[in-house]
Each structure stands twice: as C-alpha cells, then as structure tokens.
Amino acid sequence: MSFETVENRRHLRHSVNEPCTAYNEHGEFIGAVVNMSVSGAAVHLDVELDADLELDSIVELQIKRIGKVRTRVVRPLHGGFAVEFLFDPAQDRQLIARLWKVLNEYEYAPSRTP
C-alpha cells in the first residue's frame, strides 16, 4: 500500500471532521468527511459496506455545513472511500464558497490517507 504525497495532489488537503450522508444506488450511508481539499475528500462511514464502491461510481454527498455535492469515487479506503468533487464552476459558486469557508476553519495538516 503506498501513500499519496502532497506533491502528487492538485490541492492541499485539510484534516477535517464534517458529518455527511452518502447516497448511491445501494442506499444511504452515514459518516464523516475526514480530510478534504477543494477537489475531493476522504469519507469514513459508520458502517462497513458489503463491497467496496466501484471506481468511477457516482456518490452524492450531503455534507452538513456545505450542502449536496456530486462526487465520483476515485479509490476505496479502509472504512470508506475517496472521491473527486464534480463541480460546475459556473453553476456551483455558492457551494464552492461554502466549501472554502469550511476549509479555512481548519489548519492545513498533511494527510496520510492511502
């Protein structure tokens, strides 16, 4: 198992603790965003999934202080998954502004999420 370094990422990640609900074709799952950047997030779920979410599958995240964000699964994680945010900058300006506001409340902390 290799760890992605900061140099391999497009944006700095912040260690966060933001409650969320993940929705996909298999149902609704409660969890928390545990690290996040402006381009994606790592989500830890309160329950174990029977099977990992498929790569590239679409998951809608309802992040408590940010709102509903359409995402794409980029890799499975122990106890959750990592996603890329699928923003439309022209239409999602308010959502992106709320994301930045939340990120700015946390100090940057290098993440070691696999």
3D structure, described in words:
- The protein is mainly beta and 114 residues long.
- The chain has a single domain, classed as Thrombin, subunit H (Beta Barrel).
- It contains 1 helix and 6 strands, in the order ββββββα.
- A 6-stranded antiparallel barrel has the order 1-2-3-6-5-4.
- A hairpin with a 3-residue loop joins strand 2 and strand 3.
- The radius of gyration is 13 Å and the shape is globular.
- It starts with 13 loop residues before the first strand and ends in an 11-residue tail after the last helix.
Write out the CATH superfamily name: predicted glycosyltransferase like domains
Rg, rounded, reads 13 Å
* CATH architecture descriptor text: Beta Barrel
Uncertain ranges: 1-7
Number of domains: 1
Strand order of the largest sheet: 1-2-3-6-5-4
- Average predicted confidence as pLDDT: 85
* Order of H and E elements: EEEEEEH
- Approximate shape: globular
The CATH first-level class comes to: Mainly Beta
Helix content percent band: under 10%
Layout of SSEs?
Layout: E1 14-24, E2 27-36, E3 40-45, E4 58-63, E5 67-77, E6 80-85, H1 93-103
Antiparallel strand pairs: 1-2, 1-4, 2-3, 3-6, 4-5, 5-6
Descriptive key words:
six-stranded antiparallel β-barrel; disordered N terminus; globular; 114 residues; mainly beta
Overview in brief:
The protein has a single domain (13-103), classed as Thrombin, subunit H (Beta Barrel), CATH 2.40.10.220. The protein contains 1 helix and 6 strands.
